[in-house]
Write a structure and sequence with these properties.
Nucleotidyltransferase, domain 5; five-stranded mixed beta sheet; 56% helix; globular
Length: 243
């Protein structure tokens, strides 16, 4: 595992559909760039000129992918955090305020404290990361609808909202099963997941997020992961296919 050099400059990019808010770790203030090809190019140049070696991003359901590609094309190290990672870090640091600028500063701090650089996008982990992000966003949507229902008393709206919550719950359960299936198909992920699950208070999805993040830091070998069907048919099979 590659340790962070103490003199590495770190920045965080808070990714939105139209804008990229950038904060430098240890410095006040943010700068905004457009989230388009020109803006991403301007941003990567701006970061390189300031000696930044590492940038952190929060997974946002897809908006971060082109940003990550642009930063890696500029030879910048990239750390992609799952939203739950950021929330846990904020809770640890007792960081409660939420604005785009503070989000950027928060993730810059989390990125600076990461123990290792994530490997460039590994196709065997990209799908898993997307499912984890979808799980978290669907969980948030369901929670928001449940809160909204507390203030609704019209029978037709209660029924409609209830049906939406049930639909989200089914999708959430399906995603959870798919996430755990893919972890079971990768011996390295499975070993880390089981270790994390042995800790008090750590649930299956939180363990999946942390295991996936730590595995990206040391990319699995080509034979580390197999399709679930292959794993069930022959656990010792030497073949490897992506998750």
């Amino acid at each position: 595992m590659e340790r962070v050099e103490r003199n590495t400059k770190v920045a965080e990019i808070d990714v939105g559909k139209r804008w990229l808010d950038v904060a430098m770790h240890g410095q006040d203030g943010t700068r905004r760039f457009g989230n388009d090809a020109a803006g991403r190019s301007e941003l990567s140049t701006w970061l390189v000129e300031r000696g930044v070696g590492r940038v952190g991003l929060e997974a946002t359901g897809g908006y971060e992918r082109q940003v990550r590609s642009a930063m890696e094309a500029a030879d910048l190290e990239v750390v992609v955090h799952q939203p739950m990672e950021v929330r846990l870090f904020a809770r640890l640091k007792r960081w409660k305020a939420k604005t785009d600028q503070l989000d950027a500063a928060l993730i810059a701090a989390a990125t600076a404290q990461a123990d290792a650089v994530r490997a460039a996008q590994d196709p065997r982990l990209v799908e898993l990361a997307q499912r984890l992000t979808a799980y978290e966003q669907i969980s948030d949507q369901a929670a928001a609808l449940k809160t909204f229902m507390e203030h609704v008393d019209l029978p037709d709206l209660v029924q409609t909202l209830g049906e939406q919550i049930q639909s989200l719950s089914r999708l959430k359960a399906r995603l959870a099963a798919e996430i755990l299936e893919r972890i079971a198909a990768c011996p390295e992920l499975l070993a880390r997941h089981r270790l994390l699950m042995s800790l008090p208070g750590v649930g299956a999805i939180v363990a999946a997020i942390v295991a996936s993040a730590s595995t990206q830091a040391s990319r699995p070998s080509p034979s580390a992961c197999e399709r679930p069907a292959n794993l069930l048919r022959s656990p010792s099979s030497p073949s490897c296919e992506s998750l």
